[in-house]
Amino acid sequence: MGEREVVLTQEGYNKLKEELKVLKGPRKMEVAERIKIAREFGDLSENSEYDDAKNEQALLEAKIIEIENTLRVAKVVDDDVISTRKVSVGNVVKVHDYEFDEDVVYSIVGATEVNMAENKISNESPVGKALIGRKKGEEFEVETPAGVVKYKVLEIKRV
């Protein structure tokens, strides 16, 4: 079975690379130091500080593996070839939400870059998936967890 491709913007790819660098460097050293200090407390069978530090180390290693795997299978969207004719990952899209009678701006990003506070939605989310391939002026409906929502694409820009 093939691995699932992960779509990332260049910004998202760079953030993951930086996070990996921090986790493998300073963060790993901090955890190793915690383990070393906890060992000095004596009997490891009843040493909660040691257990906590070892658990943190396991979580850290799992996160490192997860990011390495994501970067390995990542398809980075080339900023220079992002079109503004049709919605794709890497676009900023202004849509009109008919239900709330308001305009909303979404950045279409890969699944690992989602940030609802910044209106960064995944190309795999219901709204993101429905937006992909749409053109300016196009109206569409999408089934969301809150029900069917109708939108109109007003503007498509590059990030």
Task: Describe the overall structure.
With 159 residues, this protein is α/β, with parallel strands linked by helices. It folds into two domains: 6-76, Orthogonal Bundle (Helix Hairpins); 80-158, Transcription elongation factor, GreA/GreB, C-terminal domain (Chitinase A, domain 3). 39% of the residues lie in helices and 26% in strands. It has three helices and seven strands. It has helices at 10-39, 48-73, 126-131; strands at residues 6-8, 74-76, 91-97, 102-109, 120-122, 139-144, 147-158. The strands form two sheets. Strands 5-4-3-7-6 form a five-stranded mixed sheet. The chain has a two-stranded parallel sheet with strand order 1-2. β3 and β4 form a beta hairpin. The longest helix has 30 residues, at 10-39. It is elongated and about 70 Å long.
Placed side by side, the strands forming the largest sheet appear as: 5-4-3-7-6
Reading the helices and strands in chain order gives EHHEEEEHEE
Strand percentage lies at 25-35%
Gyration radius from CA atoms, angstroms: 21 Å
Gap between N and C termini:
34 Å
What is the CATH class name of the largest domain?
A: Alpha Beta
SS-based class: alpha/beta
The largest pleated sheet is described as:
5 strands, mixed
Indicate the CATH topology of the largest domain.
Chitinase A, domain 3
